[in-house]
Amino acid sequence: MKTVYNRPKSLKKRVFHYCPGCGHSIAHRLICEVIDEMGIQDKTVGIPPPGCAVFAYHYFDVDMAESAHGRGAAVGTGLKRANPEAIVFTYQGDGDLAAIGTAETIHAANRGEKLTAIFINNAVYGMTGGQMAPTTLSQMVTTTTPYGRDEKLEGYPIRISEMIALTKGAVYIERVAVNSPAHIIKAKKAIRKAFQVQVDGLGYALVEILSPCPTNWKMTPVESWKWVDEVMSKEFPLGVIKDTTGAKNVD
Amino acid sequence: MSGNAAIGEAAIRAGCQCYFGYPITPQNELTEYMAQNLSRRKGCTFIQAESEISAINMVYGASVAGVRAMTSSSSPGISLKQEGISYLAACELPAVIVNMSRGGPGLGSISAAQSDYYQSTRGGGHGDYRTIVLAPSSVQELADFTHRAFELSDQYLVPVIILGDGMIGQMMEPVEFKHEAPAELPIRERALRGAKGRNSRIIKTFTSNPAELEEINWSLFRRYQLIEKEETTSESYLTEDAKLILVAFGIGARIAKGAIKTARANGMKVGLFRPITLWPFPTKKLQELAKTTKFFLDFEMNMGQMVDDVHLALGDKANISFYGRPGGVIATPAEVLRVITRLYHQKGLDTKK
Amino acid sequence: MLIKTVFAGFGGQGVLSMGLNLTQTAMREGKHVTYLPAYGAEMRGGTANCTVVISDEEIASPVASSPEFLVAMNQPSLVKFQNQIDAGGVVFLNTSLIDIEVTRGDVEVIRVAANQIAEELGSVRSANMVMLGAFVRKSNLVAIDALVEMVRSLLESKGTKIFAANKKALLAGYELLK
Questions:
Q1: Which residues 31-60 in chain C show a CB within 8 A of chain B?
Q2: Fold assignment, B3-183+203-231
Q3: Which of A181, B137, B279, C160 has its CA 20 to 30 A from that of A129?
Q4: Do B26 and C64 touch (CB under 8 A)?
Q5: Residue C90: helix, strand or coil by DSSP?
Q6: Which residues of C touch B26 (CB under 8 A)?
Q7: How many Å apart are CA B29 and CA B32, to the nearest integer?
């Protein structure tokens, strides 16, 4: 008999605290599968953010150092520069990466820091209770946009990945989603590539993951999966945003 | 050598492998020294960061990786670094932070001041923590204390702040580098460099368990008590027969010393007590001095910050006066001498036996 | 002995380098020294100045309340610092750029047309060295030979021509007060 599905070695045996239908647990698992497949568990250091994923260190069986909100790219820079042999990834949400940590992120990318950024975009601040995020869609209701996000007052959903792609130091940026088996397979390939870029020392790589947050979106998990396809990915189109690695695809 | 350059050289000799900075006057010479002398060294890193916030977080990252790392800035920039310093303290990560302070509040001025005493000695950022604060008063001490800062930081796993000022950073004096680190420093034990041959580890501050957080804080404070016991440092100058003792730190102590020399020449029995560690504050030593001297004059280049610690130490056991110049104005020895002379007469010290 | 000197002038006149050369020479001669430059915004466009303290014993304050010497390379410097000088002190005036008189009667005044002399020697840029030569002659704080050596070592990287010009200017200033 052949094992076709198993818990990744670098994923700790622990029940996720995430809500049903949340994209975090899928993203965690995909990262762990990639770490296993690449055989880098013993040299990977992860940087989880404050937010729902603050407990990411309870799940990833790799060295993990917590970062202040938004500072993941700076912490990662220090870590990687001090120990270039390590494989360093940051795990950041939309508020973290696209609001408070914009400067750190853009400049780490621009320096071409050899980091892998996993960017979870769920269009809200999850742990704090569903406030407006920089990526909150227009007209979307959150606890701080109770009348819907008004572009005139609150601006537009920001496409931070496209902005980062403008820096020369960023070599690979792709937007994926974890709302269907097909998308999940693509997401994993992107994550794999983003790690490979670091192993090859090419520069900064980022994978933006459109990730359902049924709790704060006030939807059922199934509705939230659909919403990613029907609404969210219209504002944040899936696909490769930048790839100057010149390398062939991982598969 | 300028004070700023002396710190840079001493840091490199102490085995500092990573420096992260952001330009701000009056400490740019240090950043530039590191760019010149650290950036191309084998295994070393220099980054001019995009902000002070980034710089301190890069220090945090390098410290997590187990190497000696430092950053420097001046007052407004140090305010920005407080978030990172709080995290470093919470995670028990060593780091050396240099503050060549300037006049505040706000953008203030670039001239030397001592207005960051509170910020440095009371933790500075959010939460219950302390940082060791060293206050050098000469270029030689800048070099010596930089070495000591790395040692203390590694030994006690706390961030150490070197609190200088614009003047001491810019000024030049002869300096001798007395300390050399081994060619290769060991990577610290708790470092995260990948879990090869061991279980994976976590460095974190967050806990949802109040009891756990309380224990973390207790453990920090037990260490702080040990630091208070072992590392409190001060200098006493001509205090034995003094009727009046000035209390001053850093460059202020130099100015005070100049005034005291003249006061002595004029027949006034005046001495100087200089806290070298601002935290831990040399309370006991000061209390000992108060057994024989009843009059103290606290002099600072601010409106009275350290004087609070002098009051806490001496209570009603002594008569404490204060003289300060705020906002980046540099007091002269002559003006301090005038204050000494006036006080000496007012308190009748020239007539008392 | 504890002697405090203030060098002051425009930014770009080489005022800080005068102080630095003097400080380093005294240091090499085994004296205690401090060199305190005014820096930053003060340094750009306005008056540049530095304070040099030279002593046989440990120097308490690098801040000088009442300097024994003032070297004023331009008029604003004289206006700014002349009231701070110690009674009995000496003021060096760069008369090429200063056409007012010292208002105090309790100080000695030495007049040096530093810019003119430097210009005659080939470059107005060495006016600071002319003045420094004169200063050393009068103040006797360091030996002129030692100062020349210091200037040589500090200018080493800039080539022998520049050093030669500086040396000529230093000696010209030095000889001036014979």
A1: 32-37, 39-42, 60
A2: Rossmann fold (3.40.50)
A3: A181
A4: no
A5: strand
A6: 39-40
A7: 5
